[in-house]
Amino acid sequence: MTNRTLDELDLKLLQALQLDGRAPFNRIAAVLGVSDQTVARRFRKLRATVGLRVLGMTDELRLGRSSWLVRMQCTPDAAEKLADALARRADTSYVALISGGTEVVCSMKPRNRADRDELLLDRLQRTPRVIGLNAYCILHRFYGDRLGWLGKASALTPAEESALRPGPVEPPPGTATVDAVDEVLLAALFHDGRATIAQLQSESGHSEDVVHRRLERLRAEGVLYYGVQYSPELMGHDVGAMLWLTVAPAALSTVGRALAGHREVEFAAASTGRVNIVAAVRCRGTEELYAYLTDRIGALDGVLMVESALILRQIKQLALSGVPSGGRAGY
């Protein structure tokens, strides 16, 4: 993965934070063979140059909640306003303008069926100048969530990666549950995944021991993980695109696993609908996107049709999934 503004140490730090967003700077420094001050300085630089943020993410599937990718066709004067309104909602994690600026794509996780129906069946259907809507329920993720795109950078050596990776998480069977205190902690970490224990104590009103125990439990149960938000354009990957694939049912799993292994893919999932795989990709330019579509996608057996749309502008980018457990706002 080449880039325009980042050197090898920057990429190593980004990948280290993708592995463990709350890793202390001194532990990262020890593994990378630099000083604590160097890591802190690089962290501040990345916040300024590529918009680095560490986010505490909630795995809504572990809480028994569904995830949706919604594609809306609008009149030319409406798309940007709709995208801005959707971005203000707490239950959306990704909002972008695509296809000449007349379409909006949005990743959303309604907390319950009533919230889902209120948005998909009522509010969006009645929104003026929305002339078409397709909603895809995510059935299975092949890549994304905990497996961030930075993991494909291969900046860290295997030994460095092993030293920085937190212990494995094997969530118990069934769905997890959270209470009001958990939701406060998840919401605080969503805004700043590296919030200090003192800050989390202040937010929750509970002791340091209680906060520690709850964070460990949420992680052990697979509810809480950490993601890294940044601007891939500033790393040389200027062209983003959404792909909608129609795949023969017998090839769905094979194609999905193949997509997960492609360096260009930052998200891929099986979905409901005639279009049964949705994916997001990043390339260094339109020629690279063309080569990817023809050489990589075109070589996959079972792919019957592909539609691609350039991502013109990302209004909200908190990864294609993962939202705070509590709260809603806006639209």
UniProtKB/TrEMBL annotation:
Q: Does the keyword Nucleotidyltransferase apply?
A: no
Q: Could you tell me which residue ranges the HTH asnC-type domain spans?
A: 6-48
State the superkingdom: Bacteria
State the UniProt keywords alphabetically: DNA-binding, Transcription, Transcription regulation
Quote the Pfam families the UniProt record gives.
Answer: AsnC_trans_reg, HTH_24, HTH_AsnC-type
Say if the entry is tagged with keyword Protein transport: no
PANTHER family from the UniProt entry: LEUCINE-RESPONSIVE REGULATORY PROTEIN (PTHR30154), TRANSCRIPTIONAL REGULATOR AZLB (PTHR30154:SF34)
Name under which the protein is recorded: Transcriptional regulator
Organism of derivation: Winogradskya humida
